[in-house]
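Researcher: We plan to redesign the surface later, but first we want a full-length starting point. Tokens attached.
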């Protein structure tokens, strides 16, 4: 290694704390210290990305830094939590300062956008593996859970489905007439933090879409002990995804493709007039277990398991 572990941390990751009332001590000691304000709970989540599993070896490190943080913030968004601090564990085969600089730029561009402090982490040598632990604040008892969807609730998503899955297809050689916005969504998803905060006291349940709606909405259904019906004509899709489906017949892509990082949430019909964010109603919660799709008047069963690492 050209520079030492401590020089690396100091040079690339040690930044002045912005949220000094909450993040009382950052990088440099054995632990970071956080002070949780009265009336709030700390929401915590962790996601890991492994080279060759979650990203291509030739992935732009700027995009990687962004996406690693984004997928974690997306989990906070899904609970209605406001991100406040993160820690970062990096395992790298060797120190490439150009790579590290671009990675840190992507990471901090998104962290600064949401005013988040990096307060600690770990640095080790090995196969390229990146983990973030993200921490956010949510008013006590107000986090939006997966387990509280009610029969009759309407189901919404915050944006187009299938963008990231189409992005992956394009990376793997599918020819798309205007690939840029699709690839941007795949490479640099924006976590729906604002949307999560806005629906926090309106939504009855929420999840972020990491594995595709068929799988992720399935988690809400299982945890809540309910079922659902989606309406194909209501699934929001970009022109590019519609063209892809017309070209290939692969209409399951927007339902089963992963990594969109939109929010999927349920709202009782009494409260739907309170929703003040752009979103699309795609179906309704039903008593009968399972996930069904109404496609051109024909009802199809849709439960999908999504991506599982050990299967
Ligand atoms: P220890 O050996 O006590 O666990 P380390 O030597 O691993 O401490 O880390 C020294 C300091 O640098 C700690 O405050 C730790 O949180 C921080 N740190 C280490 N790696 C990273 C990283 N990749 N990003 C941010 N902070 C880091
Ligand atoms: Mg120590």
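Model: Full-length starting sequence:
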């Amino acid at each position: 290694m050209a520079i030492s572990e401590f020089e690396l941390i100091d040079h690339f990751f040690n930044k002045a704390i912005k949220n000094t009332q909450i993040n009382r001590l950052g990088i440099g000691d054995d632990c970071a210290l956080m002070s949780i304000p009265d009336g709030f709970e700390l929401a915590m989540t962790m996601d890991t990305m492994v080279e060759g599993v979650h990203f291509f070896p030739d992935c732009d490190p700027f995009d990687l830094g962004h996406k690693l943080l984004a997928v974690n913030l997306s989990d906070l968004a899904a609970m209605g939590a406001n991100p406040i601090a993160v820690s970062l564990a990096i395992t790298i085969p060797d120190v490439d300062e150009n790579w590290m600089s671009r990675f840190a730029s992507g990471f901090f561009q998104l962290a600064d956008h949401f005013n988040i402090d990096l307060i600690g982490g770990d640095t080790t040598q090995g196969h390229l593996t990146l983990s973030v632990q993200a921490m956010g604040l949510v008013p006590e008892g107000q986090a939006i859970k997966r387990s509280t969807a009610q029969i009759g609730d309407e189901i919404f998503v915050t944006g187009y489905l299938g963008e990231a899955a189409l992005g992956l297809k394009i990376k793997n050689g599918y020819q798309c007439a205007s690939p840029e916005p699709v690839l941007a969504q795949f490479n640099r998803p924006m976590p729906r933090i604002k949307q999560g905060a806005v629906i926090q006291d309106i939504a009855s349940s929420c999840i972020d879409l990491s594995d595709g709606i068929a799988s992720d909405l399935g988690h809400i259904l299982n945890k809540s002990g309910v079922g659902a019906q989606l309406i194909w004509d209501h699934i929001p899709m970009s022109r590019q995804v519609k063209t892809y489906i017309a070209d290939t017949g692969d209409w399951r892509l927007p339902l089963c493709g992963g990594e969109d990082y939109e929010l999927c949430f349920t709202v009782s019909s009494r409260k739907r007039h309170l929703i003040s964010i752009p979103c699309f109603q795609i179906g309704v919660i039903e008593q009968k277990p399972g996930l069904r799709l109404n496609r051109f008047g024909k009802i199809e069963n849709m439960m999908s398991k999504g991506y599982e690492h050990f299967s």
